């Protein structure tokens, strides 16, 4: 991206590398230093992004998302503590790719207003490919209360390459430098119990919450409780019988290669109880991805479904055909298998296994095991199930 990138002062880490912008939150005590975990994470991400840019010079955004997802699964734990990061990079056809994991927020400012994309709202990651906003795209590390600073007026600073201590970065897309631009206010992201002591200016309006499709003013405590429960579901450690590769990654005992890193697995070792890693990812027809670390319910409005109340992660998918139900289908993880279950939807769920041309309509409430490369059709949307690990010997 050949754009002006301004950093906003703070105590986190911002890196500009190969045209991409990386924000990594510093969650340790004291000032960020060269030895901080956030800096070491940023260095690792910079290497991945540089390699991705060499392989896809016309727009590495989608490749960056896949590589960083794999890195989060394989290597993030070695840095200790939680890893919160955001990446903005160019994608094919002039689009821009936004990748978020953890407590980071992207802010898109365009002609029609401001959109907030929060990493903590995703089951694992946010991976979106978007048209460039008319004005700016910023990424900030959330504070301890889940808040971000207001977008400042455009200045003259520009980070062209390298690293800087900051709370976030702004990529400016408009061609002018209007110092009187209205400042979008992220105050609506505050939780109700945080409003009494606001560290930033009070909001002048409410910002829509993408999870509900309604304003933040219409808070539903019961819905918030269920969201917290489903968010906790992603941290539940599911233990199954499996093998370990030479790098000690847990792996499907039926596979000759590691489920996590792709390395060969000794098939003669005795099976042991291991913590099951994510079993793959769903790739939507628009390029968005959802890592399968726990059971999910998919539909046009799955948040209020009985499945979401039971703890399944709701994945909302827009559908213009009218053929998708509110809670259309479930993806359930059974031992090392990924299964799909149609929930008795009005128009049905269709599946196509790899190597087959025809779609098959699933029988309601009967689970079907998916192989890597399988496709699902819900309404007019198509999802593909892919492995989350790299190919063997990657």
UniProtKB/TrEMBL annotation:
Region Disordered, residue ranges: 173-227
Keywords in alphabetical order: Phosphoprotein
Stretches assigned to the FHA domain: 296-349
Pfam families the UniProt entry points to: FHA
Entries under SUPFAM superfamilies matching the protein: SMAD/FHA domain (SSF49879)
Superkingdom of the organism of origin: Bacteria
InterPro entries found in the cross-reference section: FHA_dom, SMAD_FHA_dom_sf
Name of the molecule in the record: FHA domain-containing protein
């Amino acid at each position: 991206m050949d754009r002006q990138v301004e950093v906003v002062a703070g105590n986190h880490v911002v890196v500009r590398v190969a045209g991409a912008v990386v924000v990594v939150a510093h969650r340790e005590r004291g000032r960020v230093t060269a030895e901080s975990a956030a800096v070491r994470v940023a260095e690792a991400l910079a290497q991945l992004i540089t390699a991705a840019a060499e392989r896809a010079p016309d727009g590495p955004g989608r490749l960056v998302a896949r590589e960083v997802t794999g890195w989060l699964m394989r290597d993030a734990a070695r840095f200790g503590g939680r890893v919160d990061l955001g990446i903005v990079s160019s994608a094919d056809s002039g689009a821009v790719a936004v990748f978020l994991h953890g407590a980071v927020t992207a802010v898109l400012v365009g002609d029609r207003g401001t959109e907030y994309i929060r990493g903590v709202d995703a089951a694992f990651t946010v991976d979106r490919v978007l048209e460039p906003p008319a004005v700016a795209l910023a990424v900030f590390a959330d504070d301890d209360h889940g808040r971000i600073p207001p977008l400042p007026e455009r200045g003259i600073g520009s980070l062209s390459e390298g690293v800087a201590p900051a709370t976030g970065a702004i990529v400016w897309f408009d061609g002018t430098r209007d110092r009187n631009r209205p400042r979008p206010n992220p105050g609506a992201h505050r939780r109700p119990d945080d409003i009494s002591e606001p560290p930033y200016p009070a909001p002048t309006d409410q910002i829509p919450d993408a999870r509900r499709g309604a304003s933040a003013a219409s808070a539903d405590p019961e819905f918030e409780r269920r969201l917290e429960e489903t968010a906790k579901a992603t941290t539940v450690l599911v233990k199954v019988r499996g093998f370990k590769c030479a790098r000690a990654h847990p792996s499907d005992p039926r596979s000759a290669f590691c489920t996590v890193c792709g390395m060969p697995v000794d098939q003669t070792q005795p099976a042991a109880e291991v913590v099951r890693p994510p079993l793959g990812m769903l790739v939507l027809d628009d390029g968005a991805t959802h890592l399968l670390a726990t059971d999910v319910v998919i539909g046009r409005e799955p948040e209020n479904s009985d499945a979401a109340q039971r703890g399944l992660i709701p994945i909302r998918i827009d559908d213009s055909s009218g053929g998708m139900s509110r809670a259309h289908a479930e993806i359930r993880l059974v031992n090392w298998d990924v299964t799909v279950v149609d929930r008795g939807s009005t128009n049905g769920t269709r599946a196509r296994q790899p190597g087959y041309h025809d779609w098959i309509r699933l029988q309601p409430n009967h689970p079907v095991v998916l192989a890597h490369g399988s496709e699902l059709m819900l309404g007019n949307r198509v999802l593909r199930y892919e492995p989350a690990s790299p190919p063997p010997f990657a």
